[in-house]
Structure formats: structure tokens, C-alpha cells
């Protein structure tokens, strides 16, 4: 019996192994200052998104980030899940011009986007993106909050972390900017946000910190748009299975009562 | 219409109805009754015997979700990543299907390892269950290949570079290596052709696994289950009908397993989704840390602990091949490790070494991990090739229980 217990324990250890040192990914790449933790509503097992912040964050993305960063996995229709009506989504899509095939002469034309269209890519191809940005192509933001080491905390820290460089700092390449939270404390993106840069329709004061917070929330939502549905469904499924497990346990015990 | 005929044979008229009619022509109903209702099963099976049923159900879940993913998937280097993103974002409940499928792969392998080590511990591979053991190992190899092919399909960074590392490992085989690598990949590096091949391989193997599971279960029902005491049932008192005893026990095990499954799917997806794989494959940018899925880590650890590349490949393939010899390496007539003190201690060390090799693989066998890895590799092979054959000699004067029922009463 004891061997069985040990075997079971070791098997559990094996199962738990991938859970260990998960933060390792955050430690790689160049050195940077320690990233302060922010409180986000989408953290934790029951986290959910503040949809008004996600909508404001889309405004920041549309008015600032989208000039350089693509988000090609997203369609305009996906924005309906931020609480917008399909009519509002249709209006947002219509403000964007996307490639629309060719005209009768065979020349490429553009057309207004529809909700089924993917977000417009700011550059025709990665080479054009790199050429326009001092040789560093701005990363696609569809999953940035998941793949960027440090996640939303670090995105927020980088966006609000631009400051006067120390005297010893020399840019390693043209266009590089000092930022203590970027890897190697240097980033190719010039400070993207400043106070009052974005017009919020809900009257929220557009400070740099507010813009950074909103766009980080938006990026986190884009990276995991089904987080809230996942958590809600998960709670229901787990509760149901717990209830079922109790019933199955009672049934099993009763059926086996004449054996033991 | 059959009235005239039926009146001529009154004995058949008594058993009228569709079910007896079908059963007389194709005995599915009576076969089901024989194999899943009345089927005699040892009365002392513990929770570790639940994993066979769990694996069957997880396989069916994988096939069901896999078919829906496949019809929405594009097996081209240009379209694969985007089609996975579309499944995750735009396909209704696509995120759920994919999450279940990806989590299912990990849960399947976890259950498979438990099933395998249970068989080793209780001697389930011994006569007359050798064919059962061998078909199980064939399944292990097929499932690993299926899982690997499936992991390449999303065509993220880890998919691409994982395929690349596997290609390079094949390349290390002397002589045929480079040819074989080229044949499998359809080029010098993973690309369109390899993706298409892996997709077909993944689908074909998945259904082939289902077929071999059928053979595995058929072999089980010929010999019957082994049990924690490792002695054959000596009569009706030692066994129970499968239903309702083991149907109720398997149901409880399945629900508990589903609970764990659901917690990972809904609350801990980071455990099974590698963040780096959300970046599209980029042949020009090697990730800092290429690492296989956790279920390959012990074999990756063996691969990296052995100094020579080809030697490492031989050792990690050998680690599975040696399992095929176990029924003939083990000369002891006693099955269960409960009555084999030395073998039981050795099994504990084996499991520790296997988990340790996983960590070695995770740390790329660097520094102290290299030494630990080499010791674990040596133990792994010594366990099967030296300790297992010799342990039989230490087992003298061991008295096995008379019967399962009697042993149960004494133990309680």
C-alpha cells in the first residue's frame, strides 16, 4: 500500500512539474528595471474586463497605435464583444479603407471596411514596416499581452516609463529611445502617448497614465477576448461536476456496500 | 409481413422485437452484455485501474473536437496560423473546442503515463498479458507521434522550431538521416509540404489509435484485468460483474478526472498553452528557449544528457523500445510489486528518475542537471536490463495470498 501512495505522489509531482518555474520566460532577454505590479480587473481565476476601459483602449489603439502596429487576427466585428452594437461596429469599420480588389482597368482599389474585415495592416509587408521604423518592424499586437514577457504590467510600465536617459546612455542604433522597462533599457518606439492625445467620447480625462491603462486593458482583452466567458462557463462546469462527483461517490459507495 | 413465417416457428415468436432480431444476426447486444455488464472483474481493483476507461473517453473527446478543428483549419504555411486565430476568435465556441483539444493532449499523455507505470508496478505485462502490454506500447508510440504532429499544426514559433529540432534529430542518424529528414519534411526546413504531411499524419494516426485501442481492449477481455495483488481470481468470489460495480467506480473516476480537466481548460490554460506559440512561425528568428511539450521532456532530457547526438537519439528511442522487452526481461513469477520488496524500491527510484529527466530536459541538461541527467539515464536502463532480471533471485520464500477475497478480508 505504501508503495502505491509513493507512486501516486510521484505521479502527481510529474503532473505538477510543468506548473513550476513558469515565470522563467519573464526573466529572459535584456536586463530592465523591476516592473511594478498594477491591479487589473482581468486578473485571477474570476477576472473580468472593464468593458468601458476596453472601448477607450480601442480609441487609443485606433488613434495612436494603429499607425504602426497591426492587429491582423482581429476583425472589426470582434469589437461587438466590447459592448458595442453591430451598427456602431459597422460605423467604426466604415471609417477604415481596406484593399478592395481591382477595378475594370486592373488597378488595385480600396473600399470601406465591413465588420467581417480584418483590422487594416498599417504596412504592406514586414520589410516596408521595418524600413519605415529605423529597421525594426513594430510587432503585431493581436497576442502582444500574452507573448510580451511581463505581460500587461510591463506594457503599462513601458508606455508610462519614458524619461530623461542617464548621462551614460548612448542609443545603440538610430531612433532608439531610453526606457528602463524595455529589454536592454532601450526601445525602438518613440514615446507614443502624451496628455490629451486621445479624444475620449465618455468624457474621461485623457492623461498619459489613463491612456496607457486603457490601451493595456484593450491589448489584454484582444489577447484573450473570451476570458470572461471562459471564467463564467468554467465556474458553471466545475460546480456541475462537483455536484455530479458527490452523486457518483454516493452511488458508488452504496453499490459497493455489499462488497466491502 | 413476417407473420406467415413466424407462425411456423413458435419459439422465435416469443422473442419478437427489433433487438432480438438484430442480436440473432449480429450479436452486438449479447456481446455488449457479456463484455460490459456480466464481464467478471477482480474485486480489488484500485483507483489506478480507472485510467483505461479515462483514456478511452479522452480519446473520443479528442476525435470529436479534432474533427471540428480540422474542418476549420488550413494546412498551409501561409494560412495555418491565421486559421487557428480565426478558430480561437471568430468561430463560435471555437476557443472552447481548441482549448479542450489542446488540454486533452496533455491530459491524455498524463493519464497514459499513469496507466503505463501502473502496469509496470503491478506486473500487468506478465503472461498471459504480453500482447496486451505490447499493444499498449504501440499505442504509446502512436500517441506520442500524433501529439507531436498535432503540436506542429498551429504553426507558431514553438511549432516551427519544434519540427526543426525533430528534423535535426532525424538528420543525426548515420547514413539515412539526411535522406530521411528530407523525406519527412519535404525540404531542407519545415515548410508547406511538411505542414501538409503532419496534418495528414495527425488525422490518420488519430483514427489508427482508435483501431489499436480496439485491439488493446479485445486483448484485455481475453485475459481479464490484472489486479493489485497480481494473482489470478480463483472463482466467482474473487470477481465482481463489471456492471454496476466497475461502471459506478469508473464513472466516479471519470468525473474527478473531468473536474481536473475543466480546471485546466477554464482557469489554468497557461499550463498547456505555450505563450511563445502565439507568435507566428518565423524561420529567420530562433526563439531563445526551444522546449518540447512537458510530455516529451523526459525523453528530451535523455537526448540531451547523452554526449553524442546520435547516441542521444538512440537512448531516447531505446527508452521506449526497452519497454517492449520487459515481459521477457522480468523472470519473476510474482506479478505485483507489493510482494517484491527490491523491485518495489527500484520502481520508486525509476519514477523519480523519469520525473527528474523531465526537469533535466527543461533545463537543457546544463551544469548540475547534466550530471543528474546522466545518472538518471544510467539508472533507467540499468533498472530494466539489470535490476529487473536480477530482482527475481532475491525473492525466495514469498507466500502469495490464496485468493483475492481472502486477502481482502485479512487486509481489512
Automatic annotation (TrEMBL), chain B:
| PROSITE patterns, sorted | CYTB_CTER, CYTB_NTER
Q: What does the UniProt function comment say about this protein?
A: Component of the ubiquinol-cytochrome c reductase complex (complex III or cytochrome b-c1 complex), which is a respiratory chain that generates an electrochemical potential coupled to ATP synthesis.
Provide a GO CC annotation, any one. Answer: respiratory chain complex III
* Record: residues binding heme b b562: 101, 202
- Give the species: Gluconacetobacter takamatsuzukensis
Subunit and interaction comment: The main subunits of complex b-c1 are: cytochrome b, cytochrome c1 and the Rieske protein.
Q: Which residues form the Cytochrome b/b6 N-terminal region profile domain?
A: 18-229
Q: Which residues bind a ubiquinone?
A: 221
**This protein's record includes keyword Transmembrane:** yes
Residue ranges constituting the Cytochrome b/b6 C-terminal region profile domain according to the UniProt record = 232-402
State the protein's name: Cytochrome b
Family in the record: Belongs to the cytochrome b family.
Amino acid at each position: 500500500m505504501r508503495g502505491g501512495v509513493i507512486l501516486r505522489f510521484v505521479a502527481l509531482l510529474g503532473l505538477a512539474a510543468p506548473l513550476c518555474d513558469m515565470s522563467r520566460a519573464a526573466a529572459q532577454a535584456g536586463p530592465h528595471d523591476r516592473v511594478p505590479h498594477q491591479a487589473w480587473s482581468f486578473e485571477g481565476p474570476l477576472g473580468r474586463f472593464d468593458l468601458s476601459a476596453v472601448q477607450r483602449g480601442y480609441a487609443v489603439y485606433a488613434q495612436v497605435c494603429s499607425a504602426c502596429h497591426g492587429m491582423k487576427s482581429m476583425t472589426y466585428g470582434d469589437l461587438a464583444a466590447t459592448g458595442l452594437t453591430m451598427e456602431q461596429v459597422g460605423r467604426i469599420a466604415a471609417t477604415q479603407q481596406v484593399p478592395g480588389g481591382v477595378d475594370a482597368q486592373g488597378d488595385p482599389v480600396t473600399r470601406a471596411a465591413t465588420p467581417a474585415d480584418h483590422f487594416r495592416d498599417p504596412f504592406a509587408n514586414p520589410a516596408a514596416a521595418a524600413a519605415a521604423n529605423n529597421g525594426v518592424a513594430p510587432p503585431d499586437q493581436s497576442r502582444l499581452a500574452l507573448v510580451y514577457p511581463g505581460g500587461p504590467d510591463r506594457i503599462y510600465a513601458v508606455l508610462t516609463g519614458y524619461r530623461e536617459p542617464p548621462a551614460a546612455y548612448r542609443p545603440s542604433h538610430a531612433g532608439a529611445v531610453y526606457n528602463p522597462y524595455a529589454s536592454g533599457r532601450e526601445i525602438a518606439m518613440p514615446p507614443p502617448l502624451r496628455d490629451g492625445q486621445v479624444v475620449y467620447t465618455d468624457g474621461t480625462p485623457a492623461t498619459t497614465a489613463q491612456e496607457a491603462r486603457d490601451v493595456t486593458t484593450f491589448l489584454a482583452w484582444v489577447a484573450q477576448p473570451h476570458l470572461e466567458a471562459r471564467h463564467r462557463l468554467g465556474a458553471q462546469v466545475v460546480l456541475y461536476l462537483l455536484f455530479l462527483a458527490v452523486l457518483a461517490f454516493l452511488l458508488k459507495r452504496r453499490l459497493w456496500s455489499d462488497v466491502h | 409481413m413476417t407473420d406467415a413465417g413466424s407462425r411456423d416457428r413458435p419459439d422465435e415468436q416469443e422473442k419478437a422485437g427489433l433487438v432480438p432480431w438484430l442480436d440473432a444476426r449480429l450479436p452486438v447486444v449479447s456481446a455488449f452484455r457479456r463484455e460490459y455488464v456480466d464481464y467478471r472483474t477482480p474485486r480489488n481493483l484500485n483507483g489506478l485501474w480507472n485510467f483505461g476507461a479515462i483514456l478511452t473517453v479522452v480519446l473520443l473527446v479528442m476525435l470529436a473536437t479534432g474533427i471540428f478543428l480540422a474542418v476549420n483549419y488550413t494546412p498551409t504555411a501561409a494560412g495555418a496560423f491565421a486559421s487557428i486565430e480565426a478558430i480561437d476568435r471568430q468561430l463560435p465556441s471555437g476557443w472552447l473546442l481548441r482549448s479542450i483539444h489542446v488540454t486533452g493532449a496533455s491530459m491524455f499523455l498524463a493519464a497514459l503515463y499513469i496507466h503505463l507505470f501502473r502496469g509496470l508496478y503491478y506486473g500487468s505485462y506478465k503472461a498471459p498479458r504480453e500482447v496486451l502490454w505490447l499493444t499498449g506500447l504501440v499505442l504509446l508510440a502512436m500517441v506520442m507521434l500524433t501529439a507531436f504532429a498535432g503540436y506542429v499544426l498551429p504553426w507558431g514559433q514553438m511549432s516551427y522550431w519544434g519540427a526543426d529540432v525533430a528534423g535535426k534529430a532525424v538528420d543525426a542518424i548515420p547514413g539515412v538521416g539526411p535522406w530521411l529528414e528530407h523525406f519527412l519534411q519535404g525540404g531542407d526546413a519545415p515548410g508547406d509540404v511538411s505542414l501538409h504531411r503532419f496534418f495528414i499524419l495527425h488525422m490518420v494516426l488519430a483514427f489508427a489509435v482508435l483501431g489499436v485501442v480496439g485491439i488493446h481492449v479485445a486483448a484485455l477481455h481475453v485475459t481479464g484485468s490484472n489486479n493489485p495483488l497480481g494473482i489470478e481470481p480463483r472463482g466467482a468470489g474473487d470477481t465482481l460483474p463489471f456492471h454496476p460495480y466497475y461502471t459506478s467506480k469508473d464513472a466516479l473516476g471519470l468525473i474527478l478526472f473531468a473536474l481536473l480537466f475543466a480546471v485546466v481548460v477554464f482557469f489554468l490554460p497557461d499550463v498547456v498553452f505555450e505563450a511563445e506559440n502565439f507568435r507566428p512561425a518565423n524561420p529567420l528568428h530562433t526563439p531563445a528557449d526551444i522546449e518540447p511539450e512537458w510530455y516529451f521532456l523526459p525523453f528530451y532530457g535523455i537526448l540531451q544528457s547523452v554526449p553524442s547526438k546520435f547516441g542521444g537519439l538512440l537512448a531516447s528511442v531505446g527508452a521506449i523500445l526497452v519497454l517492449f522487452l520487459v515481459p521477457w526481461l522480468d523472470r519473476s513469477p510474482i506479478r505485483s510489486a507489493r510482494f517484491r520488496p527490491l523491485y518495489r524500491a527500484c520502481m520508486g527510484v525509476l519514477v523519480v528518475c523519469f520525473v527528474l529527466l523531465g526537469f533535466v530536459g527543461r533545463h537543457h541538461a546544463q551544469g548540475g542537471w547534466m550530471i543528474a541527467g546522466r545518472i538518471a539515464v544510467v539508472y533507467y536502463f540499468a533498472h530494466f536490463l539489470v535490476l529487473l532480471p536480477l530482482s527475481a533471485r532475491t525473492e525466495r520464500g514469498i507466500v502469495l495470498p490464496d485468493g483475492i477475497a481472502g486477502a481482502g478480508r485479512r487486509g481489512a
